Amino acid sequence: MKNAFAGNTGPKVRSDCGVTLEIKHKGGITIDLKSKVGTLYGESISALCREVLAHFMIRDAELLVEDSGALPFVIMARLEAAIKKLTDSDREYLPVMLKTNIYSTEADRTRFSRLYLPGNNPALMINAGLHSADGIILDLEDSVAPEKKDEARLLVRNALRQIDFRGAERMVRINQGKTGLEDLKVLIPNNVNLVLIPKCDTAEQVQELDSEINKIRTERKLKNRTFLMPVVESAYGVENAFSIAGASENVVAMAIGLEDFTADLGVQRTLEGSESFYARTRIVNAAKAARIQPIDSVFSDVADIEGLTHNVARSKALGFEGMGCIHPRQIRVINKGFAPSAEETEKALKIVLAWEDAKNRGLGVVALGTKMIDAPVVARAMKTINLAVKLGMIPADRKKE
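RESULT FIELD:
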């Protein structure tokens, strides 16, 4: 008989397990558990495995579980993955959905920071909600090896049901093509707030995925809306940025991926970013024209906090409204950098008050100090004030003073 392996094992693996399953014709269920916590939790782990096997109607099998402190939802995902390598079952074994995970998000919510987490590494997922990122991305694309895609999909599904993300927008970066469509079938029913579309070159790619999501939502009678964030990563995609941004009403943000973009150009990515200046400004302009949020690429040197700080300042100056993170230590710098400063907020309040005062006195010309104020300046000031109110930096009634 053939056997199947799923999961991860080794001296550096934590909060995960590896399962080796062999289905037999007779002999009942035999479980060999190797775990440092076996004395405390061995019986419950074995009982869980028997429950999963029974759910998939497997009555005779040998199972080896090499446990490195995996939580039940991880063990369930790993064993289900091994079973599906040996059978054609379309059943699912789902952990309970936490009530704290049943929430929707808004199209215009703050998206300063989004933290990428590898979709096949449960150790990095478990406490992700503690880091205060605006969004948590469970990544099924570049961070997952091709032979691990199916396993990671089930793990991410279970993580969406069992990990408390503490109000962060629950995001998944799916794969390209048919694999991405398979990702949607498994993940959309489990309350994904936003789907990232990698290497997006055309509006048609967005529309195909949007149509599939709507089909799933209709079939499963899902109420919560699923937003989309295309990630543009090629020269062709940059040239199609505006059509991508407007491809669906569910597109609420558009990001640029500079590692793949610079590779497509055949140039090196630099700290000053001159090689990507055109692409980044094109993305910002297209997103603003489509009334969605432009989101900048990740900053890849996690040790260079000073460089990240300067990069965030340049990004904000170009018009971006957030960027990606690849390490929790980047989140605070990014959130602080994209939020209005105290000086920006006070200046915005003075502009609006001066404008209102001039209107009340019937003046046709408005000035603040030596600078003239017109409607676009006031609109920008109001946006700054509204954002400061949303972030709790100033009380809501201050904009009425």
